[in-house]
From TrEMBL:
<keyword id="KW-0809">Transit peptide</keyword>
<keyword id="KW-0378">Hydrolase</keyword>
<keyword id="KW-0874">Quinone</keyword>
<keyword id="KW-0285">Flavoprotein</keyword>
<dbReference type="Pfam" id="PF07992">
    <property type="entry name" value="Pyr_redox_2"/>
</dbReference>
<feature type="domain" description="Beta-lactamase hydrolase-like protein phosphatase-like">
    <location>
        <begin position="3"/>
        <end position="107"/>
    </location>
</feature>
<dbReference type="GO" id="GO:0070224">
    <property type="term" value="F:sulfide:quinone oxidoreductase activity"/>
</dbReference>
<dbReference type="InterPro" id="IPR036188">
    <property type="entry name" value="FAD/NAD-bd_sf"/>
</dbReference>
<dbReference type="InterPro" id="IPR015904">
    <property type="entry name" value="Sulphide_quinone_reductase"/>
</dbReference>
<dbReference type="InterPro" id="IPR005939">
    <property type="entry name" value="BLH_phosphatase-like"/>
</dbReference>
<keyword id="KW-0274">FAD</keyword>
<dbReference type="GO" id="GO:0070221">
    <property type="term" value="P:sulfide oxidation, using sulfide:quinone oxidoreductase"/>
</dbReference>
<dbReference type="Pfam" id="PF04273">
    <property type="entry name" value="BLH_phosphatase"/>
</dbReference>
<feature type="domain" description="FAD/NAD(P)-binding">
    <location>
        <begin position="150"/>
        <end position="255"/>
    </location>
</feature>
<dbReference type="GO" id="GO:0016787">
    <property type="term" value="F:hydrolase activity"/>
</dbReference>
<keyword id="KW-0560">Oxidoreductase</keyword>
<dbReference type="InterPro" id="IPR029021">
    <property type="entry name" value="Prot-tyrosine_phosphatase-like"/>
</dbReference>
């Protein structure tokens, strides 16, 4: 007997025997739900035998047979009635458990997000992506074949999505493009560090989405529920279906605040803040201004995260404010990093270490935030040092800046487009999907080993645009992405260490060394970050003007 838990109250199993029923009752199940018709197999006990054994064991059994490969709407209704009548927990079975898992998915579709359903069934060993459209349709058999069709569909209207739409339109103005995104507001997220440091106003980092969608591009204001790559279709919430010739997937990543116990309940109060949220970055600056003494913690979770330098940028700008106001000597700064190094590219570490020393900050490597008690002002970290058993330590704080754990969005992780870790599986040079040759991805959601930054998306968008245009023309890929990413490390007000690097940590400076030496703090780099980059983002990158971002020609290996 193989029990596969889908929820705390519902478990599925392949075919059970009469002898298994006693064990099932002993394990606490109150009911058995048979979804396999009698007579499918010669070695299959009849429902009458299962029912008799259940009664002898003091539990109930119900017969809701479903023909293999055909789950009718009436079957879903009968399953729902049984679920209402039977006591929990319930064990449902069929030949493999698939029909039972499918029925549960359709039944739950009226009250659970599709991503939750797909995650739960996937964890139990059942892939429900093949019936995602029906789950989106509330469990009813969909009758549509597609509500709309576009030459290119782009999922996500963040930095990557709008940039690639604009770059495509610049190359082929007549291209029929749709962007799918439910958000009303588009944010310039690289500016939030500066908001938390009292340099930018939060409102300057936000614009209405409608004002940014390129002219001639259709905006579908909806959330994506699932992908059907074999049908060239995207399923939206409510079971609307959008068909495409080519698909670009760039919805960003998910900030998993809930992964840290107690964090969501205390964010924005009790001294708990984060520059990773628009509404919280101003609170960071408020806390920094108010703090005159005490302990301030700055956390960094395991990789990957967007803008890996952001957690320490918050530390440096806070430390600089306390240094300038003369209170730094009374503040204990602790950097709690789940990783083992200050920064992943060693060329920039010496300059950063000098600022760690200047601000008297303590470096605590292999410390991962796992829970927080805001009212008590206590944080718990799991310490996992190499070749050492994990331990938990509790640390008190007066202020804590949290960088949340980060994953691919749920609807991506459970999709056929994802790799084993949940990220979109692409060729790291062409950014084309490894399995579906009419799909590309860019930005934070794909699995190329580059830094997840807006600067990376700025370079990726023209690469994807060039390769899609070449594909439309019947050719192969023509452009490649070299892994470029940029992290302007704001080490103090007025100076930045401009980290620019590509795959493997190779340095990729954009400027001559006499103008900006990225390995040293620079006022010129600060001017770039504070004054030039915001208008470049709004007026160039998002409008298809590829300033310093022209694609690199694809290098073909010699035969």
């Amino acid at each position: 007997m193989e029990l596969r838990n889908i929820s705390s109250k519902f478990t599925v199993s392949p075919q059970i025997t009469v002898e298994d029923v006693k064990t099932i009752a002993a394990q606490g199940f109150r009911a058995i739900l048979c979804n396999r018709p009698d007579g499918e197999g010669a070695d299959q006990p009849s429902f009458k035998e299962i029912d008799a054994a259940a009664k002898a064991a003091g539990i109930e059994a119900r017969y809701v047979p479903v023909q293999s490969g055909i789950v009718k709407d009436d079957d879903v209704a009968a399953f729902g009635e049984a679920m209402e009548d039977l006591q929990r927990p319930i064990l449902a079975f069929c030949r493999t458990g698939t029909r039972s898992a499918t029925l549960w998915s359709f039944h739950e579709s009226k009250k659970r997000p599709m991503s939750d359903i797909l995650l739960a069934t996937k964890a139990a060993g059942y892939d429900m992506n093949g019936v995602a459209r029906r789950i989106a349709n509330g469990g009813r058999t969909p009758t549509d074949t597609g509500d709309a069709h576009f030459q290119v569909v782009i999922v996500g209207a963040g930095a990557g999505g709008i940039s690639v739409a604009a770059s495509l339109k610049a190359r082929k103005p007549d291209l029929d493009i749709a962007v799918i995104d439910p958000a009303d507001i588009h944010y310039y997220q690289p500016g939030w560090t500066m908001v938390g440091g009292g340099i930018f106003d939060a409102q300057a980092t936000a614009k209405t989405m409608g004002s940014l969608i390129p002219k001639g591009v259709h905006w579908i204001k909806s959330a994506v529920a699932a992908f059907e790559p074999e049908n060239n279709a995207v399923v939206l919430d409510g079971c609307r279906v959008v068909k495409y010739d080519r698909l670009v997937v760039c919805p960003g990543l998910k900030l998993d605040w809930g992964k840290v116990a107690g964090l969501e309940e205390t964010l924005g109060r009790n001294g708990v803040t984060s520059n990773y949220r628009y509404d919280l970055a101003p609170y960071t600056w408020q806390l920094v201004q108010e703090m005159k003494t005490g302990r301030s913690l700055f956390t960094q979770p395991p990789m990957p995260i967007k803008c890996a330098g952001a957690p320490q940028k918050a530390l440096y700008l806070s430390g600089d404010t306390w240094f300038r106001s003369g209170v730094l000597k009374d503040i204990d700064i602790q950097f709690m990093n789940a990783g083992g190094v200050l920064f992943g590219v060693k060329d920039y570490v010496p300059a950063l270490e000098r600022y760690i020393e200047k601000y008297g900050a303590s470096l605590n490597f292999f410390h991962n935030l796992v829970s927080i008690d805001g009212p008590a002002k206590k944080a718990v970290f799991e310490v996992v040092k190499p070749d050492t058993a994990p331990t938990l330590i509790e640390t008190e704080f007066d202020m804590i800046h949290v960088c949340p754990p980060q994953t691919a969005p749920d609807f991506i992780r459970v999709s056929p487009l994802a790799d084993a870790a949940g990220w979109i599986d692409v060729d790291q040079a062409t950014l084309r999907h490894q399995s579906f040759d009419n799909i590309w991805s860019l930005g934070d959601v794909m699995n190329a080993p580059n830094a997840k930054t807006a600067a990376a998306a700025r370079k990726q968008a023209p690469t994807v645009a060039d390769n899609i245009v070449a594909d439309i023309a019947g050719g192969s890929a023509v452009a490649q992405y070299d892994g470029y990413g940029s992290c302007p490390l704001t080490v103090e007000r007025g100076k930045i260490v401009l980290a620019e690097f590509g795959y493997g940590g190779a340095l990729k400076p954009s400027f001559p060394r006499f103008l900006i030496d990225g390995t040293k703090p620079s006022r010129a780099a600060w001017f770039l970050k504070e004054t030039l980059l915001p208008p470049i983002y709004w007026k160039a990158m998002l409008r298809g003007k590829e300033w310093m971002a022209r694609p690199e020609k694809l290098k073909v290996a010699p035969k």
